[in-house]
């Protein structure tokens, strides 16, 4: 049997680094309170801090041999706001390219995950239009880095608005507004409350979109089909892309707050998933969505390496 390789990453904030938020914000209220000359200056100041902190996190990841990283959607504050004029792609083109070159040189896999308002199931056209604008922003940043073809933008199907069937049909209709080159880089993720794994899988198959499987969400929002049947189908949605299938893991904060993410990963909670992956034998990439970010990742690597048959081969990779 071939060895199975599992690579890990975390989300945006490298907590081990001093003052390293890549998501410093500037609210519209604060922006409008500034006089015209100060506005651009402030936007540039906040964005340059976010870009620098993204770069610092990437350097740290290379040092720790962590191959996956989700960049913050808030890297460029107010980037998609219609009242804000900010030519960030030109202003920061050198910095974006520098980051992209670094990512390529070290073979890192980076991604974006826009917020829950970026969705394609609404009956309100402006919500779909805003979703397109937001997807374009994320794509443009990746393109400025020169890595648009090797990165994904992950979103959820969206709201059900009281009728899932109608909402899903609206998704099929509304997604036509998304330019095809951006749709090629998008993925969909199953929800902890609304769309189950099998419902998300159906949408992914119909639209030719890879499915980012979230194990915690799946346990919180079970569907009838057993996971051992679903996983091979989920992995098959990635076959036409150049990517290794990607998974999200986290563990519940408590029994009472089951959907909330805990600080670290509870190895017992995720063990059934790993047993299943082991039996299927497909290489996967895993994004850890824990409150303690990189600290949770490094702790999990320690925990997994104690399991029989799990061998840690560097900072962020396990071979099974």
How would you describe this protein?
The protein is of the alpha/beta class. It has helices at 28-33, 36-64, 88-91, 93-105, 125-145, 164-174, 180-183, 197-207, 215-220, 227-236, 267-280, 293-304, and strands spanning 5-11, 68-70, 109-112, 152-156, 186-189, 211-214, 246-249, 284-288, 311-314, 317-319. The protein is globular. It is built from 12 helices and 10 strands. The termini are close together. The model has no long low-confidence stretch (mean pLDDT 97). The longest helix has 29 residues, at 36-64.
Q: Features of this protein?
A:
single chain, alpha/beta, 12 helices, 8-stranded parallel beta barrel, 320 residues
What's this model, at a glance?
By secondary structure, the protein is of the alpha/beta class. The protein has helices at residues 28-33, 36-64, 88-91, 93-105, 125-145, 164-174, 180-183, 197-207, 215-220, 227-236, 267-280, 293-304; strands at 5-11, 68-70, 109-112, 152-156, 186-189, 211-214, 246-249, 284-288, 311-314, 317-319.
Low-pLDDT sequence parts:
none
CA radius of gyration = 20 Å
Count of β-strands:
10
Characterize the overall form. Answer: globular
Supply the helix-strand structural class. alpha/beta
Distance between the termini: 10 Å
State the order of secondary-structure elements, H for helix, E for strand: EHHEHHEHEHHEHEHHEHEHEE
Main β sheet profile: 8 strands, parallel, barrel
The tally of helices reads: 12
**Strand percentage:** 5-15%
Main β-sheet, spatial strand arrangement? 1-2-3-4-5-6-7-8
Helical content band: 40-55%
Average of pLDDT: 97
């Amino acid at each position: 049997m071939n060895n199975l390789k599992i690579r890990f990453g975390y989300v945006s904030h490298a907590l081990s680094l001093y003052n390293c938020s890549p998501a410093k914000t500037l609210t519209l209220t604060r922006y409008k309170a500034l006089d015209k000359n100060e506005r651009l200056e402030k936007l540039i100041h906040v964005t340059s801090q976010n870009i620098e902190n993204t770069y610092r996190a990437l350097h740290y990841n290379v040092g720790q041999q962590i191959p996956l990283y989700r960049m913050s959607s808030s890297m460029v504050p107010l980037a998609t706001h219609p009242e804000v004029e900010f030519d960030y792609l030109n202003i920061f083109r050198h910095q974006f390219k520098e980051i992209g070159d670094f990512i390529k040189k070290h073979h890192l896999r980076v991604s974006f995950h826009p917020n829950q308002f970026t969705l394609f199931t609404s009956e309100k056209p402006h919500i779909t239009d805003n979703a397109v604008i937001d997807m374009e922003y994320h794509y443009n940043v990746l393109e400025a880095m020169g890595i648009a073809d090797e990165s994904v933008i992950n979103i959820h199907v969206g709201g059900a608005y009281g009728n899932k069937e109608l909402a899903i049909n609206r998704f099929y209709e509304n997604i036509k507004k998304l330019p095809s080159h951006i749709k090629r880089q998008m993925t969909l993720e199953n929800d902890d409350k609304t769309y189950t794994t099998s419902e998300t899988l159906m949408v992914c198959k119909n639209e030719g979109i890879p499915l980012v499987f979230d194990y915690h969400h799946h346990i919180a929002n079970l569907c009838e089909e057993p996971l051992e049947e679903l996983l091979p189908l989920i992995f098959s949605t990635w076959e036409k892309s150049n990517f290794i299938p990607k998974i999200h893991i986290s563990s519940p904060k408590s029994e009472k707050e089951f959907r909330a993410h805990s600080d670290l990963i509870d190895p017992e909670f995720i063990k059934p998933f790993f047993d299943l992956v082991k039996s299927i034998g497909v290489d996967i990439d895993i994004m850890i969505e824990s409150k303690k970010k990189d600290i949770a990742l490094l702790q999990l690597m320690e925990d997994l390496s104690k399991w029989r048959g799990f061998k840690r081969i560097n900072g962020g990779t396990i071979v099974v």
